[in-house]
Amino acid sequence: MLPVSVCMIAKNEDNHIEECLKRLRPCRFEIIVVDTGSVDRTVEIAHRYADKVFHFAWCDDFSSARNFSIQQAANDWVLIIDCDEYLENVNLAQLEESLAGRRESVGTITRNNPYTIQGSRSIMSERIGRLFNKTYCHFEGSVHEQVRTLQGKEPSTFPIPLTFYHEGYVGESDKRIRATRNLEMLLHDLSVKGPSPYIYFQLGQNYISLNDMEKAAHYYKLGLDLDADPNSDFVQSMAETYGYCLMDLAKYDTAMSLHDKYELFSHRADFVYLMGMLYLKKGELQKALEEFKKATTLSSYSRKGVNSYRANYHIADIYESMGDLDQAHTYYKKCGDYEPAVRRLRELASGSAY
After folding, report:
1. What kind of fold does domain 266-354 have according to CATH?
2. What is the pTM of this model?
3. In 3-state terms, what secondary structure has residue 71?
4. What CATH code is assigned to 4-166?
5. What distances in angstroms separate CA 222 from CA 50, 226, 238, 254, 322, one per listed residue?
C-alpha cells in the first residue's frame, strides 16, 4: 500500500460515490469516508469500498469536516477527493517518487471539468492542491476551503501524476440551494476575515451559479483590484471569468480594461483568446485576428480549444468576412473535426450563404 490516505467527506452522494470509490480502490490507497448526515445510500456504499467510515456532525464549516477526516488517516500523506471526482489517469510509481523531500509542499492534481461554450460541450482543465502531509498542512475557511500550513501560510506546490474527471452535475434546484448556502458562509468569512482575493473570487463563482452576472462581475473586480498573485491559478481564472461576465452583459468597453493587465495574464491562451473575443465583439477585426493567432502559439491553457480549433475557427471566420476565402478554408481545415468548422466548409463548398 502506498503511504497515502484518501480522505473524503460526503453527504447524500449515492449517485456519485460508488463510481468514485470503484476507480480509487485498485490504487492501494487507504480510503476514509466521513459522512456529514446522509439520508440516502451513501454510507452503505461507502462501507463496501472504504477502509474506514466515520460520522461527523455538520457545523456549517467545510474545513472542520475536512480536518476531522485527515485526523482519521493512518498515513501522514493525505489525498483529498470529492465524491463527484472520478480517477482518469495515475502513475503510482511516479506518485510515490514525487513525495520524497516534499513534506512541506502541496501536490496538485489535474481536474478536468466539463462546460458548455457557444452551444457545444468542452473541457476546462485546472490544477488543484489536494495532496499534502498532515503534519505540516491543514484546511482553513468555512466554505471553498483552502490548504494552508499550520502557521496559516500558503504552501508551495508541485504537480503529481493524478488526473480526475469532475462530474459535478446537479439539478438546477440543488444548484441554487448549494449556492445560497455557500453565499451565506462566504459572506460570513468576508465579515470575519476582511477583504480577500480568494473570497471575492469564490463570491463571483457563487453568483455565476445563481446566474447573476452583475454581482459576479462586481466581486471579480474587487478581487482583481486587491494585491493578488497574478501567477495564482484562481487569479488567472478570475480575470478571464470577469471578462466573460462583462461580455455576457454586453459591457465590452468595461471588459477592455483587462488590457491593462495584459502583461500579467497573456502567457495563457485563455486570456489571449478572451481578448480576441472582446475585439471581435467591438468589431475590431484586425486586432481580434492578431489575438487569436497569438493564442494558437501558446501552450498554457485551461479551456480546451482556445489555442487550437476554437481560435482557428474565429481566424477563419474573420478571413471569410474580409473576403479572403483561401485563408478561410486553410483555417477552417485546421479546426479538424470541430463541427461548426466542418459545417462551414461544407456550406462554402456548396455555395450556401450564412
Report:
1. 1.25.40
2. 0.77
3. helix
4. 3.90.550.10
5. 42, 7, 10, 14, 39
